[in-house]
Amino acid sequence: MKRQTKTLEGEREVSVVGMSASRTSELVKPGTSLDDEVSGAPLCRFCRAPLRQTFVDLGMSPLCESYISTEQLNQMEAFYPLHVRVCSRCFLVQLEEYVSAVNIFSDYAYFSSYSDSWIAHAKAYAEQMTSRYLLNESSLVVEIASNDGYLLQHFLAKKIPVLGIEPAANVAAVAVDKGIATLVKFFGVSTARELRVQGKQADLLLGNNVLAQVPDLNDFVAGMKIMLAPSGVLTMEFPHLMRLMEENQFDTIYHEHFSYFSFLTAEKIFAAHGLTLFDVEELNTHGGSLRIYARHDEDRSKAVSARVQELRAREESAGFTRMETYRSFGEQVEESKRALLDFLIQAKRSGKRIVGYGAPGKGNTLLNFCGIRTDFLDYTVDRSPHKQGKFLPGTHIPIYSPDRIRKTRPDYVLILPWNLRQEIMQQNAFIREWGGQFIVPIPKVKLYS
3-state class of 182 per DSSP? Predict the structure, then answer.
């Protein structure tokens, strides 16, 4: 799960469906009153309609990647609302931007290469795209939020020119060491124009798990329109809102994730910037994601697939254009909290030892929302040395290397990155030697022996 966003670098004109932006006299959009603007009522980051409907309120939580050092344990820690709303006009589910992008992403603790299954996913993607679009030494592949080069390295191995765009300098440095040209910048209209002046346009433009991390969606998608070559293909992967709701994946909500997309809403956003979604794949990554394929409206060489039409119809049938569909999610989440706490309380009263596996963003949402601290989890472990020796934000649960599990022989291991449960259970199958069991908390508490 890579993070990328963009802050405005000055006023500019944007033309999208039902909207024009940035002069004060143009701020009041259809369906929005001047009172809404002046009163500070939150507005939809895409269509600027006032946000009055709660999707789920997870209370107050720290930034999910703000790991705590020993020296910081007794210092003040910032918490921000995790109050998610849904737009009644475009149905974009979204969280307000409480902290600037620079504070979140300029120095980042997430490195994609520490997940074996994610590396395999990236390699398979490179093989698929190279074959489908006949990429070669004359092509240019550009990845937005390219992290540590986990994906572009597979194109580079085929001698296909690549460019990464990554705002976190510490993460980008790892990609550069792999020989991957990387621009340390936030992406948007300004960066896209700069690269286009240099003669760079992407034959394949991609972003995996970045669209959700963008507070200024219109600037970001407009930038992709500029960056994409006339006959180029754009792919984006992001968690699918339908799966999030069906499988109760509320822990994927955190401050670094500003938006949560159905296919219908994503289609509206890209269409507003002259991009047509012509294909879509449903993936199992991150608990259920979409990979959308986009082209310029003017590029008629790529017909809209039956998969687009089928998913569009399925979401409409499931009620993703009706507000009542979104209103029941909050109670579902609260019941999940009660069920997990019931299990943990009974286990601790029975004298069981429980530890965590992983220190992902989703785990920090789960633990803070449920109030799970060292009274329930002795510690957690993570393969990333950048997290080891630190403490989880908010809960202050210590993070160790995975080999600590073998040394302490806990009764239960709570898998926080549940989307990687198969990989983690295989790597830690040795806990069965002493009768240990795995706990997977989402979509509901389940034990694995």
Answer: strand
Measured in whole angstroms, the distance separating CA 271 from the mean position of its chain's CA atoms is: 22
Q: Which residue has the tokens 């310029």?
A: 296
Rounded to 10 degrees, the C-alpha dihedral 399/400/405/408 comes to -90
d(C-alpha 363, C-alpha 414), whole Å: 10
Q: What is the pTM of this model?
A: 0.84
Question: pLDDT (tens digit, 0 to 9) for every residue of the chain, 449 residues total?
Answer: 443 433 333 333 333 333 333 322 333 343 444 444 444 679 999 999 999 999 999 999 999 888 999 999 999 999 999 999 999 999 999 999 887 655 555 454 455 555 778 889 999 999 999 999 999 999 999 999 998 898 999 999 999 999 999 998 888 999 999 999 999 999 999 999 999 999 999 999 999 999 999 999 999 999 999 999 999 999 999 999 999 999 999 999 998 899 999 999 999 999 999 999 999 999 988 779 999 999 999 999 999 999 999 999 999 999 999 999 999 899 999 999 999 999 999 999 999 999 999 999 999 999 999 999 999 999 999 999 989 999 999 999 999 999 999 999 999 999 999 989 999 999 999 999 999 999 999 999 999 99
* Pairing of β 289-296 and β 228-239: antiparallel
Helix or strand run (H / E) with residue 197: helix 189-197
Q: How far is CA 10 from the centre of its chain?
A: 26
Q: What is the DSSP string of 55-77?
A: EEEEEEE--TT-PBPGGGTTS--
Instruction: Quote the DSSP letter at residue 261.
Output: B
DSSP assignment letter at 305: P
d(CA 419, CA 405): 20
Q: Which of 254, 261, 184, 252 is closest to 217 using CA atoms? A: 261
As given in the structure block, the two tokens for residue 301 are: 């060489």
Structure tokens belonging to residue 156: 């580079």
